[in-house]
Amino acid sequence: MPVVGVSGILRKEQEMWESTDKSLQDAFQDLNALMSKAKEMVVLAERMRLKLLSGSNNQTSGTNDEDMGTKEEMQDWLLSVGIASPVTKESAGALYHQQLSRQLADFVKKPLEMAGGMINLIDIYCLFNRARGTELISPDDLRQACSLWEKFDTPVMLRKFDSGVMVIQNKTHSDDEVFSRIRSLVSKPDALRTGISASDAAMTLGVAPAMAKEHLLAAEGKGLVCRDVSPDGFRFHINLFPEISPDDRYLVKDHGIYSMWISAISSS
Amino acid sequence: MQMLGEFKLPHFFNYPPYFTLQPVRDTREKQIQLWKELILDYCRTQKVFVIGLDEDFQLFSNPAIERTLSHESREAFLSALVLEGRAEWLDKGHRKCLILWHRIQDWADLILRFVKENGLEDSVMTVEEIRSGVESRGTELHGMDRTILMRALKLLEHKGKLAIFKGTSADDEGVKFSI
C-alpha cells in the first residue's frame, strides 16, 4: 500500500471521505429512527384528538369530575404542543389561552410604559417570547390571548390601524390627546416651513417611529395634516386646504393658520 | 406674489402637499378642485390648448420648493377636467390632453359673433383665415387651436349655420356661412 508520494495523499483523502460518509450515514440512521417515531407520535395524538371529539359529542357518557379534569388537561396538553382541539375552538377560550391572556396583560405593563403608551404587536411577540425563554408561543397564540382581553377587566387593549398594523395600547390612551400634540407640533414655524417626518414626531411624542407614523396617518385621516411625498422623503404638513377659499384662490384671511404659514415661509 | 409668465400664482402653489396626490377623500376633492381651476385659468391666460403629460409643463412644477407633480397626479387632475367636460384626451394612452378653457359651444358662439360683427353672414372663408386672418386679430379666435376650431365649425354645421367644404387647393378647407 503506497503511503508516500501523490498516490499516498490521494489514498488518505479517499479514506477521509469514506469515514465522513459513514458517520453521516450513521447520523441519518438516528434521524430516520426519530422520524418514524415522530410519525407514530402524530398518529397517536390524532387518535386522542378524535377520541376527545367523540367523547364530548357523546352526551350520555357518565362524566364524573375526574374524567372532565383529565379531558381538560388533555386538551391543554394538545394545545401546548400546537395541536388545536376542535372541542374548545368555538368556546370562550381554552384554559391555556385564558391563562396566557392574563399573563400577557401583566407582562405588557412595563414595556408599554417604556414605549410611551403604545407598542407594536410584533415587538411584544419578541419581548414576551424572549422573556419566556422556553415554551415559546406562536403569533396566533398571542393574537388569541390579546383578543381575550375584551372578556375580562384589563387596562390594556388590542387595536388595529387602517394600515393593518396591530398595537397594544392602554385603554386610557386618548387619540384626541395625541392629535392635539401633533397639531401643535406641525404649527411651529420650522414645521410650517418644512413639515415633519415620522422621526420628528417620534421624538416629540415619545414613541417609536413606526408608532409615530401610525399616529400621523390617523391624524391625516382626520384631516389635521397632509402628506408631502418627494425624494426628500415622506413628510406631513398642517392641512391648509380647508383655509383656501373656493371662490377666490388669492384670498388670505388675517390671523388664520394660512396667513401664519405665509409669514413663516416668507421669512426663510 | 409669484408669477408664471403673466399668470399670478396663488400662495398655495408653494405648499408642498399641493404637489402630492392626497389620499384622504375630502382633502383630495379640495385639491382636485384647486388644480382644475388653476389649469383652466392658466391655459386661458397663456393660450395653451394642449397639455402633453410627459412634457415639461410649467404649471406642474415649482422649482422654488423642488416639487413636481407625478405622472399619476397629472393624469388624475386632467381626468377630473375631462369628466367635467372641460378637457378631452387626444389619445388612448392619455398622453395628450386638449384643454377646453372655452367649451366647444362657447367657441361656436364666438365664431358666430365674429361673423356677425364683420358682416360675413353669406360669405366664404378658409378655415385658416378664421383663426389667422386679418379680421381675427384682436379677437379670441386669433391663434386658436385648429382641432378645436374644426369641432366648433362642425357643431355649427350640424346646426345649419354653415357648410364646410374642401378647398380648390390641396391645402385648406373652406367654410360657407349661412347665418
Automatic annotation (TrEMBL), chain A:
The keyword Protein transport applies. Its main location: cytoplasm. The keyword Hydrolase does not apply. GO terms for biological process: protein transport to vacuole involved in ubiquitin-dependent protein catabolic process via the multivesicular body sorting pathway. GO terms for cellular component: ESCRT II complex; late endosome membrane. It holds the Pfam family EAP30. It is found in: Cytoplasm; Endosome. GO terms for molecular function: phosphatidylinositol-3-phosphate binding; ubiquitin binding. Belongs to the VPS36 family. Component of the endosomal sorting complex required for transport II (ESCRT-II). Component of the ESCRT-II complex (endosomal sorting complex required for transport II), which is required for multivesicular body (MVB) formation and sorting of endosomal cargo proteins into MVBs. PANTHER family: VACUOLAR PROTEIN-SORTING-ASSOCIATED PROTEIN 36. This is Vacuolar protein-sorting-associated protein 36. It comes from Forsythia ovata.
Automatic annotation (TrEMBL), chain B:
Pfam families: ESCRT-II. Keywords: Protein transport, Transport. InterPro entries: ESCRT-II_cplx_Vps25-sub, ESCRT-II_cplx_Vps25-sub_N, WH-like_DNA-bd_sf, WH_DNA-bd_sf. GO terms for biological process: macroautophagy; protein transport. The keyword Protein transport applies. Belongs to the VPS25 family. This is ESCRT-II complex subunit VPS25. It comes from Forsythia ovata.
